[in-house]
Amino acid sequence: MIGTPYYLSPEMVEGKSYSTKADIWALGVILYQLCSFKLPFDANSLPVLALKILKGSFPPIPNHYSKDIKTLLLQMLQVDQKKRPSIEAILMKPFIFKLLSKE
Questions:
Q1: Which of 10, 83, 84, 95 sits between 20 and 30 A of 69, alpha carbons compared?
Q2: Residue 79 has what DSSP assignment?
């Protein structure tokens, strides 16, 4: 297994096969950090971190962020990888598409 434990998706923690949806999870962790300056899943040991990741519950980001960002985070950090959006679906979200169209 390769990677920083804080960014491991639930399927990776369980040793299951994984897809690009594991990358969506990792992007969700990064987005969470950018919004809150904290990790969504943190622990002092790898076993406790693994349990937190598998549970998939994390503190909400600060209230000044939009509902769109909060919803996207919840989608990206879904424990069930089938429920996570693809990168194409993320890029087509109206608020993301609008931001990307400005350039």
A1: 10
A2: S
Tokens standing for residue 43: 């622990």
Residuewise pLDDT in 10s, the chain (103 residues): 566 899 999 999 999 999 999 999 999 999 999 999 999 999 999 999 999 999 999 999 999 999 999 999 999 999 999 999 999 999 999 999 998 887 6
Residue 33 neighbours by CB under 8 Å, 6+ apart:
39, 40
Place of tokens 């960014």: 7
Q: What are the boundaries of each domain within the chain?
A: 5-101
d(CA 12, CA 70): 24
